[in-house]
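# step 3/5: fold
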Amino acid sequence: MEKRKEVEDNWLTYFHSIKNVCPWSYESYKKGRIYITKFTETKVIGTEQNWNMDNYDAVVYLTNMSVDELDKFVEYRNNEQNSCEYLWSHPKFTKGGHRQTSQPIVIQQDRAFLTELREKQSGS
């Protein structure tokens, strides 16, 4: 039970650390609306094909991919369909702020919802 609490605390800390670039993720995580699971391409595509936000705002897939593999996978999925937007994080890569995750992940979110949130945030 202690290990599970530690993992939950680590994710809470991570989502809190990215509030300035993704302000909705922290609240979503606290409300249990971010599902964290192991990555398989089949699982990602299956979730994408049946995508809805009834249960979760985002799905985080834990993986062992390299930075290049993550980048290629996410770019491919983003170009292949319109329902989800994919992002990634890797412990050896940061675009600034050193807020990367402690293990490689793929993040799957609703594309239309993210666009709406970004427009509100930018004041458009």
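# step 4/5: annotate
The chain has a mean pLDDT of 87.
# step 5/5: archive (pending)
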